[in-house]
Write a structure and sequence with these properties.
13 helices, 54% helix, alpha+beta, 2 domains
């Protein structure tokens, strides 16, 4: 009951001097709002970059590049290597077969265009892309059926994944395209081959926006289709056996550093077995790069937040000052309470709670202002990108994400500020001699 009574007395005191209390809170409000604004901006930038990056395609892959082993080759400027020194298909196949739980291969190649006749005998054009991997690795969403898989390539299956636009162009309305056979004319040889539709993906809105002229009819739009890369190479009697680089997707259930080490050791051993120690691989991972970028943003955000939080010390000194003034004004009140038997701890608790209340209210107001600032800056950034760089507006998924830990820390810090800067005045009040206090004029 005594604790609740102290809270009531604290509210009464604050409400009795509203303007003074507000001015006292000002330092706390400014400090907390600055911290929340900065942390909101920092976490929003991180979330925006992550969402934008993920919207462009899957991030769980390594870019593996063949390159000269600089430790082995002394004069790199005069050294030249042949196509056979690049990543061979045998190497890549062996990697997937050796570590099927860790890695999957992703390779693509274009095979020109093909013209088909739809159910109305209209011309429908498609761009044929050979793939080893999954179409969703490119940020495409499967709407029905399945993806092109590794077995389709190994067994040279005549499977194909088409877009939803192609389905509307080629088939009558309400037709289920899965299992339907379409005939492609290979541009390089003129031969025709039948392919069975096993999946349908959603054509990205960005592709539709930038690939086609405004007002173009759907029937005139060229869409792309995916077929097994090895199947196409086999049909065209060609071999794409060497690659300057390859995208190798990894299982996210495993540690990324461990997987990268496995890749590096595997290709090093492969080049040594092939008696090509002058070659090695360079491995990049966008997820790790994003992690590094986010780490830099976090460090900068924390550093600026700490600088902004210095103003809280000024606010805390203001709280101490006003509490000392308040104690001086209420000296007789303190004397009467002590004369009636109030303990020193009760007097001390009363003024500590009052200081905490002032800081807590100031902290809450600061948090609200900080959140509003972050939201406003986000909306301004979105508007600026839309108006100044409209061609990039769809690429950025601007996300406003307040930092929950920063909000919790701010509330806790407000309470601690009240305790730290309110204790001295409260202790001074508790130690007053009741006779001197009653005599005070």
């Amino acid at each position: 009951m005594q604790f609740l009574e102290n809270i009531r007395l604290a509210f009464t005191s604050v409400l009795a001097n509203k303007m003074r209390a507000l001015l006292t809170m000002l330092g706390i409000i400014i400090g907390i709002s600055a911290v929340i604004t900065i942390t909101t901006i920092g976490s929003s930038i991180q979330k925006t970059l992550t969402n934008t990056f993920n919207s462009l395609g899957s991030a769980n892959y390594f870019d593996v590049y063949s390159q000269i082993n600089y430790e082995y080759v002394e004069d790199v400027y005069s050294f030249t290597y042949k196509e056979e020194d690049m990543l061979s298909r045998e190497m890549l196949n062996e990697l997937v077969e050796t570590y099927p739980d860790y890695f999957s291969l992703d390779l693509t190649d274009g095979f020109g265009s093909s013209e088909l006749r739809n159910w109305k005998d209209q011309s429908v054009k498609v761009a044929v892309t050979g793939i080893i991997g999954n179409v969703n690795n490119s940020g495409l969403k499967l709407l029905a059926g399945r993806d092109i898989n590794y077995q389709d390539n190994i067994n040279h299956k005549h499977t194909i994944v088409v877009s939803d636009l192609f389905v509307s162009q080629y088939f009558p309305p309400d037709t289920n395209p899965l299992g339907q056979t379409i005939t492609l004319e290979l541009e390089k040889t003129g031969q025709t081959e039948d392919f069975v539709i096993v999946g349908v993906f959603e054509l990205p809105s960005l592709y539709s926006k930038y690939a086609y002229e405004p007002g173009m009819k759907d029937i005139d739009k060229v869409t792309f289709v995916y077929v097994p890369l090895d199947t196409m190479n086999n049909l065209l009697h060609q071999e794409n056996s060497y690659y300057g680089y390859a995208d190798i997707y990894y299982n996210t259930d495993y540690d990324i550093d461990m997987l990268q080490n496995i890749l590096q050791e595997f290709f090093t051993e492969q080049y040594e077995k092939a008696e090509k120690p002058y070659m090695t691989v360079y491995i990049e991972n966008m997820q790790k790069q994003m992690g590094m970028i986010n780490s830099v943003i976090s460090v900068i955000t924390i550093a600026i937040s700490v600088i902004a939080a210095i103003s809280l010390i000024v606010g805390g000194v203001g709280v101490m000052n006003i509490m000392l003034v308040s104690i001086t004004e209420r000296t007789k009140e303190i004397g009467i309470r002590k004369a009636l038997g109030a303990q020193n701890s009760s007097i001390r608790m009363q003024f500590v709670i009052e200081a905490i209340l002032i800081c807590l209210i100031g902290g809450i107001i600061g948090i609200i202002i900080g959140l509003l600032n972050g939201l406003s800056i986000g909306l301004i950034a979105k508007t600026a990108i839309t108006n100044i760089y409209p061609e990039y507006a769809d690429l950025f998924t601007i996300t406003i994400q307040p930092s929950v830990p920063a909000i919790i820390i701010s509330v806790a810090f407000s309470v601690m500020t009240g305790v730290f800067f309110g204790y001295y005045p409260a202790n001074k009040a508790a130690k007053m001699n009741p006779i001197d206090a009653l005599r005070y004029d």
